Amino acid sequence: MVDRQQTGVFSGKVRSATAGPRYRYFLYDAIIYVALALFIVFVVKNVSSNLARLNITGGFAFLQGKQAGFGISESLIAYDAQASYGRAVVVGLLNTLFVSCLTIVFSTVLGTVIGILRLGQNRPLSKLAQAYVELFRNTPLLLQLMFWYALILISFPGLREATPVLGIALFTNRGLFLPWMASSTGFGWFYVGTAAGILAAFAWRWICRQRQQRTGSQMPVFLPSVAAVALLLILSKVYSGTELSLEWPKQAGFRIVGGLSLSPELATLIIGLTLYTSALIGEIVRSGISSVQKGQIEAARALGLHEFTILRLVILPLAIRAIVPPLTSQYLSLMKNSSLAVAIGYPDLASIINTIINQTGQAIEGIGILMGTYLIISLGISLALNLFNKRMALVQR
Q1: Helical (H) or strand (E) element with 320
Q2: How far apart are CA 377 and CA 374, in angstroms?
Q3: Dihedral angle at the C-alpha atoms of 165, 168, 169, 170, nearest 10 degrees?
C-alpha cells in the first residue's frame, strides 16, 4: 500500500514538471504577440509619416467626394465620367461578379461533361477529353487569354465587312452582337417575377419533400417549378403593362446599334476562364466518379437500370461528396483569376482600382478595398459550398 504522503509528493513533482513547459509556451506566445504588436505600430507610424510627407490625406472620403473623371467601356449600371470613385468601384465589382458567375456556370457544365467522357466506354471521345484536359490545364491562363484575344481581333472582320451569321448575329473585331429583348418600361418586372418564381419553386420543393417524408409518395417537382416561374413572369408582365419587342443588331455608320453586344474583352475572358477551369473541374469530376464503389454500380445494373439513369441517380449523388471540397478551391481560384482581365483591357475591379490609385495616390485604401472585396467574395463562396457539402454528407444513425 502506497503511503499518502509519498503519493502527494509524487503528484506534486508531476505537476511541477508539467507546469514548466506550460509557462514556457505562455512566455513564447507573449513574446510573439508583443513583437507582432510592435511591428504593426512601426508600420502604421511609418506609413502615417510618409503620407504626411507626400501631403496625402488618408481615409475613404475620396470615394464620394471626387469625380472619377475616366470612362468605363462596359458597365452593368449607369455610369459616366462625372460619377464618383465609389460608383466606379461598384461598376468594377459588378463586372467581376458577372464574369465570375457566368464562368462558374459554363465551366461547371463543361467540366462535368469532360470528366464523364474521360471515364466513358467510347475510346475516341475519352482520348479527346484527355487531350483537352492536358492541353488547357498545362498551358498558362494568361497565355491562353492573350491567344484568344489576338485570335478574335485578327480573325473577325471589321464593322464594314461584317455579315450576319444565319441572319441573326454579327461577328466583328469589336465584339459579338446578338438580338435581344427590349422593354418599354425596363426589366424591373422580370427581376420581380423571377425572384417570386424561384421562391415559389423552393416552397413547392419543400412541400413535396415533407409529403414524401410523411406518406412515402413522391410528387413531381421539376415541371411544376418551371411552370411556377413561367406563370409568375407572365403575371408580372401583364400587371406592369410592359410591351416586349425583339431588337436586332444593325449597322449605323461606324457602329452597331440594337441588340446585345459582347465585347472582345468580355468574350475573351469568358472563353479563356471557361476552357482553363473546365479542364481542372473535369479532373475533379473524374476522380470523384472513380471514388464510387463498383458494388454500387453493379447493384444498380442488376436492377436493370439504364446507364444514364445509373449515372444520374447513383454515381453522381455518391461522387458529389468527393467533388465538392476540391471544387470549392477551383471556384475560388476562378474568381481570383478573373483579375487577369487587366491584361486584355476588360474593366474589372482590379483594373478600376488600379486606375483610381494612379489618379488619387490612395494606394493603401485602394489595395485595402481590393483585398477586402476578394476576401468577402471568397468567404461567401466557401460558406455556400461548405453548407451544401454538409447537407450532402452521409449521416450515420
Answers
A1: helix 316-337
A2: 5
A3: 70
- Specify whether the CB–CB gap between 263 and 231 falls below 8 A: no
Q: How far is CA 196 from CA 21, 148, 191, 203, 225, in A?
A: 61, 39, 9, 11, 11
- CA dihedral for 188, 190, 195, 196, sign (positive or negative): positive
Report the candidate in 99, 127, 101, 100 with the shortest Cα–Cα distance to residue 114. 127
Amino acid symbol at 158? G
Nearest to 279 by CA among 382, 147, 144: 144
Q: What is the pLDDT of residues 101-144, one digit of tens each?
A: 999 999 999 999 999 888 878 888 889 999 999 999 999 999 99
* Chain position carrying cell 505562455: 26
Residue 171 neighbours by CB distance under 10 Å: 16
For 47, other C-beta atoms within 10 Å of its C-beta total 12
Task: Assess whether pLDDT exceeds 50 at residue 1.
Answer: no
Contact present, 217 and 211 (Cβ < 8 Å): yes
- Going from the C-alpha of 195 to that of each of 107, 190, 244, 387, the distances in angstroms are 25, 9, 20, 22
Question: What Cα–Cα distance (Å) separates residue 362 from each residue in 83, 90, 367?
Answer: 18, 17, 9
DSSP of 200-248, one letter per residue?
Answer: HHHHHHHHHHHHHHHH------HHHHHHHHHHHHHHHHHHHT--EEEE-
Radius of gyration (C-alpha) of the chain in whole angstroms: 29
SS3 for 184?
Answer: coil
In 3D space, the residue among 387, 276, 256, 292 whose CA is nearest the CA of residue 333 turns out to be 276
Cα gap 203→205, rounded to integer Å? 5
Euclidean distance between CA atoms 339 and 341, whole angstroms: 5
**Model pTM above 0.85:** no
List, in order, residues 6 or more apart from 164 with CB less than 8 Å away.
170
pLDDT digits (tens, 9 = 90+) for 250-262: 777 667 776 677 7
C-alpha cell at position 302? 442488376
Helix, strand or coil, per DSSP, at residue 187? coil
Could you tell me whether strands 175-178 and 260-262 are parallel, antiparallel, or unpaired per DSSP bridges?
Answer: antiparallel
Nearest to 145 by CA among 376, 348, 281: 348
Residue 150 sits at the vertex; the CA angle it makes with 149 and 156, to the nearest 5 degrees, is 90
